[in-house]
UniProtKB/TrEMBL annotation:
Keywords: Coiled coil. This is Uncharacterized protein. Residues 70-100 form a coiled coil.
């Protein structure tokens, strides 16, 4: 039985040695595989890192441009708002001027109508007076003719 135990111990020791050898061999192969993988992946990893850095720069640039554009758009919105307010004020001024013009035109029309009525009345009076003057002139001319016709008769009567 002691032989059997010794044999089992030797066998266990032998298995441990083989197990350790197999483990070292596995670790060596694993390290070699990892080194090979690192060698294969190093350029790719470097490329990815460079690409990521470029992407970060691009994102930063785009963010700055976007911020600048937003600020520019905000400025343009403010300008548009001021322009719309100015346009509103000008529209109100134009409406006020249009109202004043319409009122002035109405007043001028009313004054013109009053003046026209007055002139028509004066023209009517002038025509009436002209007619009266012509009638008076005809009458005076007739009387003058009658008087001239009677002058020789009166002169003969006075002389004689």
């Amino acid at each position: 039985m002691t032989n059997q135990i010794e044999d089992l111990q030797k066998e266990a020791k032998q298995r441990r040695i083989e197990s350790n050898r197999a483990r070292r061999q596995f670790l060596l192969e694993l390290r070699q595989a990892q080194d090979a993988l690192d060698t294969d992946l190093s350029p790719k990893l470097l490329q990815l890192q460079l690409s990521a850095a470029r992407d970060k720069d691009l994102i930063r640039t785009l963010t700055e441009e976007t911020t600048a554009r937003r600020a520019e758009q905000e400025g343009l919105r403010e300008q548009l708002k001021r322009a719309q307010e100015e346009l509103k004020v000008r529209d109100e001024q134009i409406l006020a001027l249009q109202k004043a013009k319409d009122q002035t035109v109405t007043e001028v029309k009313d004054q013109l109508e009053v003046a026209t009525t007055r002139m028509r009345r004066l023209l009517g009076l002038a025509r009436e007076r002209d007619t009266q003057w012509k009638e008076a002139n005809r009458t005076l001319n007739e009387e003058l003719r009658q008087t001239q016709l009677q002058l020789p008769v009166a002169a003969r009567w006075l002389s004689g």
